[in-house]
Amino acid sequence: MQDINRLSDEELVSLYKSGNERAFTELYSRYEQKLKRVIFYYIPNIDEASDVFHDSIIRVFRHIDTFDTEKSFASWIYQIAINCSKNYISRNMRDTQLLELERFRLTRGPLRSESPEDIFISENDIAEFNRSIDNLKDKFKTVFILRYDQKLKYSEIAGILKCSERTAKWRMEKALEKIAQYLSEKGVI
Fold first, then answer.
1. Domains of the chain, residue spans
2. Would you state the torsion angle of the CA atoms of residues 73, 142, 106, 96, taken in this order, to the nearest 10 degrees?
3. Own/partner pairs for 14-23, CB < 8 Å, 24+ apart?
4. Is the Cβ–Cβ distance between 13 and 64 less than 8 Å?
5. From 38, 71, 173, 184, which residue has the greatest number of CB atoms within 10 Å?
6. Do residues 127 and 135 make contact, with C-beta atoms less than 8 angstroms apart?
7. What are 34-90's pLDDT values in tens digits?
8. CA distance 79 to 157
């Protein structure tokens, strides 16, 4: 019996296509938290983000037979989650982002482990930082989230967004400039 945990994502997809249900369970385990975090950046409401996550997984499940195992599964699944998030926003998004983000932070803790620098950042500064991300144009926000939160390489981001690596780096640079400008205008930096 194969050690399913050691298989690549693409090998798991092939195994699942051949009838092994555990392969899909392993893929789900690998991506559940990552996708939830990406979706939450777009939809900072725990319940709504959870709905979009489930919609994303259903789409993956329904269309996994069309996935080309010669390509990156990570790129494919992230793109599905991002597209589902964007579709949801265009249909349903309300103006409760900051309240829900704060609720999530208080109930679930910080989005990343606290460094010594984070301890000294005021709650207002954190809220302004989150607003600066929310104010980014979509193409900059997506690159920022994938790089900053998911720690993906620019080559992986380029694959997800179907752009060149150079374009992904440029978008990240612009995202950082816009965040810095926003925070400067708000007196945070």
1. 1-109, 111-189
2. -120
3. 14/69, 16/64, 17/64, 17/65
4. yes
5. 38
6. no
7. 999 999 999 888 999 999 999 999 999 999 999 999 999 999 999 999 999 998 887
8. 10
- 182 within 8 A of 95, measured Cβ to Cβ: no
- Alpha carbons 72 and 66: distance in angstroms, whole number: 13
CATH of domain 111-189: 1.10.10.10
Q: How far apart, in whole angstroms, are the C-alpha atoms of residue 43 and residue 50?
A: 9
Instruction: Provide CATH code, domain 1-109.
Output: 1.10.1740.10
What single DSSP character describes residue 65? G
pTM score, whole prediction: 0.70
Residue with tokens 């589902």, as numbered in its chain: 84
d(CA 145, CA 136): 11
Assigned token pair, 135: 């104010």
* CA-wise closest residue to 148 among 111, 107, 120: 111
